[in-house]
Every structure is written in C-alpha cells, then in structure tokens.
Prior knowledge:
Helix content is 44%, strand content 11%. By secondary structure, it is α/β, with parallel strands linked by helices. It contains eleven helices and five strands; from the N terminus they run βαβαβαααβααβαααα.
Amino acid sequence: MPPSSKTAIVLLSGGLDSVLSATLASQEITLKEALTFDYGQRAFLREVRAAKSFSQKWNLPHQVIPLPWLKDLTQTALVNRKRPLPMISEAELNTLTITQKTAKEVWVPNRNGIFLNVAAAFAESKGYDSIVTGFNVEEGTSFPDNSSEAVVAANRFFEWTTLRHTTVKSWVQDMTKETMVHKGISLHLDFGELWSCYEGGEKMCGVCESCLRSIHAYKKNNIWEKMRRNFLEAEREK
Length: 238
C-alpha cells in the first residue's frame, strides 16, 4: 500500500503521459479505477487496448465512457477521418507559432473540461479524493487545457461544484516528453504497450505530431532503435 490513505480515479488514454502519471501517483496514493473516453477519436480502439492492458497490470478496474455527442460537435481532424491530420517536422516541435496552429486542427471543444467533470462526478459519488491526469508542460504550451493554470482553475471550480472538493493533479505536470521517457526508463515502464498516435492502425503512424514528440523523446534517451519497430513510417525509412 502507498503511504497515503488518499484515493483517486485516473484518466487513462494509454499514452505515455497518463500511464506515467498514474504509475507515479500509485507510489503516493491509492488508485481505485481508471476511465477512458470514447468521443469518436481515430485512435480509440488502440487507446482503449493500451489503457486496459495497463489497468490489468495494476489490478485496476477500467471503464470506457462513451461520449457520442462530443463527436457530433466537432469536425476536428482528430475525429473526422476525411480531414487530414496536421503534419510538421521534428525540428518544428518547439516552434510555438506552428504548434499552436496545429493544435487548433485537432482541438475538441472543451474535451479535457468534459473529462474532468465526468471524473469528478465519479470521484464524488464513490468517495475518491482526487483525479489523476497526464497533463504536462510540453503539451501545455500549445494546448491550454493541459497547463498548470488549467489545473489550478479546475481545482477552484470543484471547490464549488463538488461537496468533497475533489482535486485534480498530474504527476507529470512539469515534465517534457523527454523527461517522462527518462523517468519511465528508471521505473521499467513498458513503452511497447503505450499508444501515443493520433491514428489507430496496427502500428503508430510515425508522422503525426504526437508520434514525433514520442520519437524525439526516445531519441534523446537513446532508446529509439529499440522503439522504432512500433512506428510504421520509421520502419519504412530503415
């Protein structure tokens, strides 16, 4: 058992951010269950497969929450397969003007706000203290709902909308993908089970922005050659 009696529900997409955050959180608090959302995203089936895999390893109950109406509210490329996903180069990942533009092309209206409110309802009804997310500083620069400011605002909001004053915390809030991979290596995280791609194929596409961020982090931590086989385009380039 972790040293604290605090309990939490986890928002789990099966990607590096949420999986590592949950892993770190489990060292300090007791995780009670995990939620994965279906809002029509291209990668849903792969995300839920990864989330279930890690939940089973942790002996954590896992539930999929359907949000079909959210799919109907957006024409984002993340959901609409007729729209091309934005493509950038690995060298452009730190160019804010470019990543802010690509973020708009995969933006789902109030997605993280909706996720947090659903999780808060679960937490309050079941007596959990908090919600564990995978929000991080790297994505927070182009996606404001991933930022530390968003977490502060959510916690203020839940002081008024939950009787238990449910709190939100990410154990990777101040980390980049590079530092997350470094930390994951030290914890023997199974990177091969993660799904961090906008697409939902047999392998991660290797060219979308989400893939490029993972690839860059793997290269910086000298494990890219080991991970290459999980990415479609990277395999073709060999």
